[in-house]
Write a structure and sequence with these properties.
Strand content: 5-15%
Number of domains: 1
Number of helices: 3
CATH architecture: Orthogonal Bundle
CATH superfamily: Winged helix-like DNA-binding domain superfamily/Winged helix DNA-binding domain
CATH class: Mainly Alpha
Number of strands: 3
Strand order of the largest sheet: 1-3-2
Largest sheet: 3 strands, antiparallel
Helix content: 40-55%
CATH topology: Arc Repressor Mutant, subunit A
Shape: globular
Distance between the termini: 32 Å
Order of helices and strands: HEHHEE
């Protein structure tokens, strides 16, 4: 069972960063992706994905494009 959202954001954000690094800085998932696609690719809910990406955006680590998300640093 997953922990409370505020405890999971850090882990989810780190996992997304690792996937970005492995994918050459690009992950072809964004806010327009279906919940099923996000779950299949990252094994997290769309809500958890949006929270983690929001945190990474705030930090300036990623940017959202039409193709997905890109690493900025």
């Amino acid at each position: 069972m997953r922990e409370a959202a505020y405890n999971e954001i850090e882990n989810d954000a780190q996992m997304i960063m690792e996937r970005l690094k492995l994918g050459g800085g690009i992950l072809s998932i964004n806010d327009n992706s279906s919940p099923e696609h996000i779950k299949n690719e990252l094994n997290i809910s769309k809500r958890a994905f949006k929270r983690a990406v929001g945190r990474l955006l705030k930090e300036g680590a990623v940017k959202i494009t039409e193709e997905g998300i890109e690493l900025t640093w």
